[in-house]
Amino acid sequence: MRFAASLIAILPLTTAAQQQKPLGASLQSWFDKAKSYIPNAALAPVASGAAKAAASNVVPLTKDNWQSVLTPSTTDPFEGPESWMVFFSGGNKTCYGKCTGLEQAWNESAALMAADPSSPRLAYVNCDRQPVLCASWSAGPPTIWHIQLPVVQADQSTPATTIRILGLNTTTTTTKEIVKIHTDKTYEKKPVYEGALHPFNGWVAKYGLLMPLGYIMYGFANIPSWAFMIGISMFSRFYM
Fold first, then answer.
1. Beta strands in 57-134 (DSSP E)
2. How far is Cα of residue 1 from the mean position of the Cα atoms in its chain?
């Protein structure tokens, strides 16, 4: 009862604040205040609810669907580039079991941004389950890739796809920081990625070699160290 009364008491304050704050800031403020009134024992259902909300708002990417998913949803050149935030996470293999807290923060931020019509589209990659995709992009957890997909222009030309990579701290990154990537455009502080493995503009992608290279890199990453030593020993014995 005290929790319900306290929650009702803060609603008028947040309503008034919404007239002065951006939508993302207002949502985050309400979430922080409401969460402060929730006993620790009740946080598990809250996290579960955020995960369910995120599941309906976040597209899982795989090596088979990423090219069809990461395409602009409009053909109108005047609407500008379409923004995406892609969260690269993992389990024990690729994130050493340290991404659990970030998964919760991502789910909460996805639930908050779902209420903002100007928010970017969201996608998720688990590098334990999609090792070839992560290898082909040279992407690893925990990171968020902010991608701006261009729309084909009136003259049929297509501008370059802009990618900025934001590293996440497994112990200190919060829901608020993830939301600010959109609301405060903190991604603009990062340099534009222009490497050879750029999944849209890199020369590897332009020659259609991105996924084959991903398989090769994944294969090499899984060769035991003792196998390399045996191979080097045999090479040196027969050719040197």
1. 58-60, 82-89, 121-126
2. 38
Q: Quick one: tokens of 102? A: 């970030």
Nearest to 109 by CA among 119, 99, 94: 119
Q: Determine the residue type at 100.
A: T
Give pLDDT tens digits for 113-136: 988 989 999 999 999 999 999 999
Phi then psi dihedrals of residue 205, to 5 deg: -70, -40
Grouping H, G, I as helix, E, B as strand and the rest as coil, residue 38 is coil
Determine the straight-line distance between the first and last CA of the chain, rounded to whole angstroms.
81
Question: Residues 26-32: contacts with CB within 8 Å, 24+ apart?
Answer: 27/112, 27/115, 27/116, 27/179, 28/112, 28/175, 28/176, 28/179, 28/183, 31/108, 31/112, 31/175, 32/176
Q: Locate 104 and state its tokens.
A: 């919760």
- Tokens at residue 161, please? 């796809």
As given in the structure block, the two tokens for residue 233 are: 């020993």
CB 217 within 8 A of CB 137: no
- Output the pTM of the full model: 0.74
Task: Say if residues 192 and 163 touch (Cβ distance below 8 Å).
Answer: yes
Question: What is the spatial distance between Cα 12 and Cα 18, in angstroms, rounded to a whole number?
Answer: 10
